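Hi Y.,

Following your request, here is the sequence exactly as I used it, all 177 residues.
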Amino acid sequence: MSIILTQNVRINTLITNCVDNMKKWNYNVPNTIKFVIVEPRRFLGQCVFAKNGNPLTIKLNRSLINHGTENDITETIYHELIHASLPKGTHHNATWCKVAKEVNEKTGLHISRLADSSKLGADYYKEYKYVFRCKKCGKIIGLSRMTRFVKNYNKKDSNGEPLWWHSKDHGEFERIK
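Below is the corresponding structure, written out as tokens. Let me know if you'd prefer a different format.
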């Protein structure tokens, strides 16, 4: 395997386990991805693609590494590996969601489209323009720009079911900022 790992032995073990599992489950994880730990940004992880569409780098937030639990970090690694295993531009579409659901079922984790900024410390979410909380479990999600989620977080489908819910407990979101 020519995956380029970080300087952090604990994180390298998590990365290696996640990559090995994704390959064992026959997901198309590229053999050349560089993992880096970056200074706190407004993401827990980010998969960066080259112009030719191949994934180059997976960035992991230093605050997540320092303050997140092993599950938080593992979920983020899997989240980004799912991006890396799919074509550039897939984002969080139905294909991404299907793979995330399959990985959740295999691992017992709760990989979701939205990052929980509360994993990065109590004050981290304060820098976000839009902040939402799950009505069931209290998970806080911060977003810095207008997205489809921000516009539609409280909309329901024709059956009265929410279009957006917290994947861990199917709780609806409320906007708190």
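The helical segments are 9-24, 62-67, 70-85, 94-107, 148-152.

Thanks again,
Q.
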